[in-house]
């Protein structure tokens, strides 16, 4: 094995470890890997930077602005409010329509804000129709994933594959090239989720998290100040502990920790009492005593009664992941006072302000009421680090603006489909028209871009380039061909799809596509067939992430919005993965012959 191959493998493996651990922002891990590949001579500086000027990256950047313009019309919120009537007539029909509608929207709009808007609707809808939210939220996320496959610009994964296909093989993939197969997969997926999936999905309480009566839900630190009602009392004598059914986990005093103290343990001024309790109890405690570990001006600002308690969810890929509340300057950034933190399935047992956050964590926070709307707006941005799940997000429907935006989008799609103009210029032209027509301001345009995805896409192109320059793509393709004993191309294609599908569950979809697409091209050339079937398989398999709640951002969002367990995803997702694998292995060669 050549030294360049070894260096590429080591850099990719290190990147994989950092991706999975989630300690550093994924886009900066990718950029660091790109720099390392250039410095070690695996690729040239020009090859390292080519991803940032690639038409795929530019298209994704401006597609985010188009999505933001459509969201600001209020059309999607207006649409979600019409779903309850359908569900009341037929739950099966309701799920089918929900999946199809969300998928169609995700074909042209980034799926994160779509799911963010649908979550509160689903939570309210589940109460009205008497169905647990756990029966509806996973189908919501899966529908958004399937919808991204419908068009070339429906997901950044498709554009990555398209860009590599052009660079490697000079192949052009049309806007609707994947649509026939994607429609069949979507319909099968919708039927599966409405029938088999509906029965597999758990049936648990669907109340919003802040209303659930689970005293093991949160852990909060109570700083005992001079005015505290806990001061100089034994634990057994504190009325609040009895009334709110608090579990005292530990007491910190002068650097010493007393774990599970007895009932006659006396609490003194300056102690930090860690209690396990429900969200409702945390809110009650906030009114009675000081939960802050560091008094400051912002604490005084929140001391009035004009506050609301909200739940802020850390999303997958968020810059908050790996940081703690103190490092994030949480109070000033969110104008919020954190009350408690809950990990995905664990209770926080370390200091509230010094707990490293993970994707899916919920921060129970007190916010000035007038600032809640600002947080809602922030959570709908394409590059939002968090989502709000405890309150509905709704804005009025602007019919005039919607007409202009949808007209521009249709014109963009038509001009691209007819090959009148390259897709990247079509998207840029559409954005310019929307800015000129005041459908979106330049400031909102900048804010609408998910810069993390843009940087990630620009950097991960270097992964694929490194595979090509080092010869790893041919080595991996030879290994995959060897495992199938030079069998029929359909079997080789099927094994390639499976490898990509498994990798995308631990890597980001974008990184998986960047690494495996050159391998697919090498396999096709190695067995003497057209590379197009392998490119299409790479698109589908890279996007189809149904097995874990942390493999895709929308999965994380619905995971924390409903009372799910980690295993709920693979139980329902493995069937969907198998359906996609088998059907794709059969359909791709039909629509794209070898």
Describe this structure in words.
The chain is an alpha+beta fold and 594 residues long. It has a domain at 209-388: Regulator of K+ conductance, C-terminal domain (Alpha-Beta Plaits, 2-Layer Sandwich). It has helices at 3-21, 26-39, 45-49, 55-71, 75-80, 83-89, 91-106, 111-129, 137-147, 156-169, 179-194, 196-200, 239-243, 279-288, 297-301, 330-334, 369-379, 399-417, 423-436, 442-448, 451-470, 472-483, 489-503, 509-526, 532-543, 553-561, 566-591; strands at 218-223, 233-234, 247-253, 256-259, 266-267, 272-277, 307-314, 336-342, 362-368, 386-388. Strands 1-6-3-4 form a four-stranded antiparallel β-sheet. The radius of gyration is 26 Å and the shape is globular. Mean pLDDT is 80; it is low at 206-216, 287-305 and 391-395.
Secondary-structure map with pairings?
Layout: H1 3-21, H2 26-39, H3 45-49, H4 55-71, H5 75-80, H6 83-89, H7 91-106, H8 111-129, H9 137-147, H10 156-169, H11 179-194, H12 196-200, E1 218-223, E2 233-234, H13 239-243, E3 247-253, E4 256-259, E5 266-267, E6 272-277, H14 279-288, H15 297-301, E7 307-314, H16 330-334, E8 336-342, E9 362-368, H17 369-379, E10 386-388, H18 399-417, H19 423-436, H20 442-448, H21 451-470, H22 472-483, H23 489-503, H24 509-526, H25 532-543, H26 553-561, H27 566-591
Antiparallel strand pairs: 1-6, 2-5, 3-4, 3-6, 7-9, 7-10, 8-9
Helix pairs in contact: 1-2, 1-21, 2-21, 4-10, 4-19, 4-20, 4-21, 6-7, 7-8, 7-9, 7-11, 8-9, 8-26, 9-11, 9-26, 10-24, 10-25, 11-27, 18-19, 21-24, 22-24, 23-24, 23-25, 23-27, 24-25, 25-27
């Amino acid at each position: 094995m050549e030294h360049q191959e070894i260096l590429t493998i080591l850099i990719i493996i290190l990147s994989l470890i950092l991706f999975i651990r989630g300690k550093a922002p994924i886009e900066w891990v990718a950029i660091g890997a790109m720099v390392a590949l250039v410095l070690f001579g695996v690729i040239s500086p020009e090859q390292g930077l080519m991803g940032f000027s690639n038409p795929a990256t530019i298209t994704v950047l401006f597609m985010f602005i188009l999505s933001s313009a459509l969201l600001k019309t209020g059309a999607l919120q207006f649409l979600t409010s019409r779903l309850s009537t359908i569900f009341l007539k037929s739950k099966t029909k309701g799920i089918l329509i929900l999946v199809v509608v969300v998928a169609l929207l995700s074909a042209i709009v980034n799926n994160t804000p779509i799911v963010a808007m649908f979550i509160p609707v689903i939570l309210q809808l589940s109460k009205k129709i008497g169905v647990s939210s756990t029966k509806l939220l996973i189908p919501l996320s899966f529908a958004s994933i399937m919808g991204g496959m419908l068009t070339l610009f429906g997901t950044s994964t498709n554009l990555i594959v398209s860009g590599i296909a052009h660079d490697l093989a000079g192949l052009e993939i049309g806007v609707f090239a994947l649509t026939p197969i994607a429609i069949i997969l979507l319909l099968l997926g919708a039927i599966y989720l409405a029938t088999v999936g509906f029965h597999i999905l758990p049936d648990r309480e669907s109340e919003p998290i802040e209303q659930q009566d689970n005293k093991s839900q949160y852990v909060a630190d109570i700083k005992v100040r001079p005015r505290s009602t806990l001061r100089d009392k034994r634990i057994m004598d504190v009325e609040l502990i009895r009334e709110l059914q608090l579990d005292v986990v530990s007491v910190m005093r002068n650097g010493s920790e007393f774990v599970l103290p007895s009932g006659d343990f006396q609490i003194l001024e300056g102690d930090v009492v860690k209690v396990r309790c429900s969200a409702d109890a945390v809110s009650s405690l906030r009114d009675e005593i000081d939960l802050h570990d560091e008094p400051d001006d912002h604490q005084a600002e929140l001391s009035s009664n004009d506050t609301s308690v909200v739940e802020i969810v850390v999303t997958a890929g968020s810059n908050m992941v790996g940081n703690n509340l103190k490092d994030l300057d949480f109070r000033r950034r969110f104008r919020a006072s954190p009350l408690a933190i809950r990990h995905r399935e664990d209770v926080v047992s370390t200091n509230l302000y010094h707990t490293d956050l993970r994707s899916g964590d919920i921060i129970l926070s007190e916010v000035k009421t007038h600032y809640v709307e600002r947080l809602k707006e922030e959570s709908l941005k394409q590059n939002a680090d968090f989502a709000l799940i405890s309150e509905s997000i709704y804005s009025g429907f602007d019919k005039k603006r919607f007409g202009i935006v949808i007209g521009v989008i249709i014109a963009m799609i038509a001009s691209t489909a007819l090959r009148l103009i390259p897709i990247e210029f079509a998207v840029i032209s559409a954005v310019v028209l929307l800015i000129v027509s005041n459908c979106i301001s330049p400031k909102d345009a900048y804010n609408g871009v998910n810069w993390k995805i843009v940087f990630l896409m620009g950097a991960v192109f270097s992964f694929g380039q490194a595979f090509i320059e080092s010869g790893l793509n041919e080595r991996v393709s030879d290994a995959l061909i060897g495992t199938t004993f030079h069998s029929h191309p359909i079997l080789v294609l099927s094994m390639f799809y499976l490898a990509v599908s498994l990798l995308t569950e631990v890597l980001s979809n974008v990184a998986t596509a960047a690494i495996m697409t050159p391998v697919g091209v090498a396999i096709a050339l190695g067995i003497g067939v057209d590379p197009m079937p392998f490119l299409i398989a790479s698109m589908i398999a890279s996007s189809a992430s149904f097995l874990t709640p942390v493999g895709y951002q929308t999965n994380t969002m619905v995971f924390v919005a409903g009372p799910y367990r980690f295993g709920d995803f693979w139980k329902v997702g493995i069937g969907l993965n198998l359906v996609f694998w088998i059907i794709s292995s059969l359909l791709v060669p039909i629509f794209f012959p070898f």
